[in-house]
Amino acid sequence: MLANVKSTPLVSAERSLSPNAVALMLMLCVSWGFNQIAVKLALPDIPPLLQGTIRSIGALPVLLLIARFRGVKLLTHDGTLYAGLFAGVLFGFEFVLIYRGLLLTSASRAVVFLYTAPFFVALGSYRWLGERLRASQWSGLALSFAGVALAIGIPQANVDADVLVGDLLIVGGGALWAATTLLVKATRLLQAPPEKALIYQVAVSIPILALAAFVSGETMTRFPGPLAVSLMVYQAAWVVGLTFLLWFGLVKTYSASKLSAFTFITPLFGVVASYFILHDTLTPVFGAAALLVIAGLYLVNRPNPEVPVPIDPLLTVTKT
Predict the structure, then answer these.
(1) Which of 199, 219, 296, 311 pairs as cysteine with 143 (C-beta 3.0–4.6 A)?
(2) pTM
(3) What is the pLDDT of residues 282-293, one digit of tens each?
(4) What are phi and psi of 76, to 5 degrees?
């Protein structure tokens, strides 16, 4: 996943992470890993697709304020309109799959299957963008495929047909996340400010998610309680808005490739948090599958020590 980090000083590519930066990265990974749990906890009050709609509506003004604060010009004619609209369509349908999938599968399974996205990116970059993969990245792809095959293919007492459908919907969401990443890499969106690229996605997703909620017959019979409201603020303002800003600030100061090594921690936190908060059942089979996927994620994202590879800060964190 690539980034528009041309303005990053060269020294940042060699700068080691400070203890404060490590602590901040751990906090961000915990935040992203908790997101699927937040969706599940809010489900009793707010149906899933309405959650996605509310989240995008709430996140948009936060992102607009961030763009204004950073002096980003959103209305310039930079040739990104059509690619941005298409990215927004992918983003919207991605979350249709993710939020519907969370109705059927557990948060722990969802966070693992969602983070198959980097593997789809690696395969797509190899197939359509002509990028070469290192031996360790091919090993990571193999491990991730084995993990997904183990989790879905091996019969488990707590997994029925509905759960498997939910798993597949989440994997589909991860594939659309990857498609968005590949679109950015192959179009002028790569040179656009990250705020603008994300605003395209969030804005276009609103009518898509709202229409999907309407078609699905989702309604709210009462005003959400304080817990559900706070969880929606968490998803919209914190996850989509502020953690993105914090991550972008880190990328400006430190090497994006070094920061990306933390990516594999996010599903690990998600699985652990799902166990303690939602009391998800973690069978030995799923535990082994999750470890395979996480190990594969690490190998795919591990930076090449010989060639610094920038990572897209926008697309690696905002799809949680």
Answers:
(1) 296
(2) 0.84
(3) 888 889 998 998
(4) -75, 150
